[in-house]
Amino acid sequence: MTNPLFYAKILLFGEYGIIEDSRGLTLPFSFYKGTLKFSELQSDFEKKSNEHLRNYAEYLKVLTLPAGFEVDTESFIKDINSGLFFDSNIPQGYGIGSSGALVAAVFEKYSLKKYDAETISKDDLKALKKVFGLLESYFHGTSSGIDPLICYMNLPILIENKENVDKVAIPQSEEGKKGAIFLIDSGTAGETGPMVQIFFEKMKTEGFRKTLKEEFIRYNNACIEYFLSKEMNPFFRNLKNLSVWAFEHFKPMIPESLYKAWKKGIDTNAYYLKLCGSGGGGYILGFTRDYEKAEEMLEGFNKEVIYRF
């Protein structure tokens, strides 16, 4: 492969729940992408990216990876000295995998062992997820490894639990249909670390732990099941429950600019909103049976349709 592209990812379902063993469903998003390139490093963007790669290479030099998953850091550093940078239009702090794509690109180019997305086994996926968690920890302190795995595989992935992931076929997007899944730009970037910290603080309360396990995870898992089987009535029932639950319990993670719009969707049943990643800013996910109507009601927000049904 020459200059392979690594797409952004969208976590449709599973935000925060996957920390507590819920299921998750994530898919590549080709609108945003990144690739490793060489240049004379003329622009500020290229210089900054090259410097980031240099710092990352220093981290990789002292990182111990499992046998069989080693990365050739010497070649990586040599290329950085020759003007390597990560050319990406994936916005940072938007919950769509900017660091995941970079990690995937570095691993694809410099890992000693290569993998084929079509034939990769479930055991290899599990092992790769752990390795990617180590590789991405540089950016977030800790990482599940899911984001880089999606970007690396460039396939929809079903997160079965904390340990296991598998490739999954999602129903084909049907252009021209009324229903849609869409992104809303909250207008500000979010930071994963502080949001995850808020979540762990909440987890210290027994009541929150109970409702997360008994309600949130149940709605989340049901949404995945019904979406994959294209059963839209029970899908939207559970989606509404999920949106209401998040509005009540994930308020700090919901960008303030979207409070009213979030509530309006629940009250009118015209659309439902949910977090896209850790929240706090970046993108929010929207789901509707009638995108034209939802678009009118969400006038003033930048929106991007990602899937039609």
From TrEMBL:
Keyword Transferase belongs to the record: yes
- Span-the-membrane segments of this chain are none
> Per UniProt, which keywords does this protein have?
ATP-binding, Kinase, Lipid biosynthesis, Lipid metabolism, Nucleotide-binding, Transferase
The GHMP kinase N-terminal domain sits at 84-153
One Pfam family recorded for the sequence: GHMP_kinases_N
An example of a GO molecular function for this protein is: ATP binding
| UniProt-listed InterPro entries | GHMP_kinase_C_dom (IPR013750), GHMP_kinase_C_sf (IPR036554), GHMP_kinase_N_dom (IPR006204), HddA/FKP (IPR001174), Mev_gal_kin (IPR006205), Ribosomal_Su5_D2-typ_SF (IPR020568), Ribsml_uS5_D2-typ_fold_subgr (IPR014721)
Which top-rank group of organisms is this from? Bacteria
Pathway(s) annotated for this protein in UniProt: Isoprenoid biosynthesis; isopentenyl diphosphate biosynthesis via mevalonate pathway; isopentenyl diphosphate from (R)-mevalonate: step 1/3
Q: Mind listing the GO biological process terms from this record?
A: isopentenyl diphosphate biosynthetic process, mevalonate pathway
Q: Which GO terms describe its cellular component?
A: cytosol
Ranges for domain GHMP kinase C-terminal come to 254-304
Q: Tell me what this protein is called.
A: Mevalonate kinase
Species for this entry: Chryseobacterium lacus
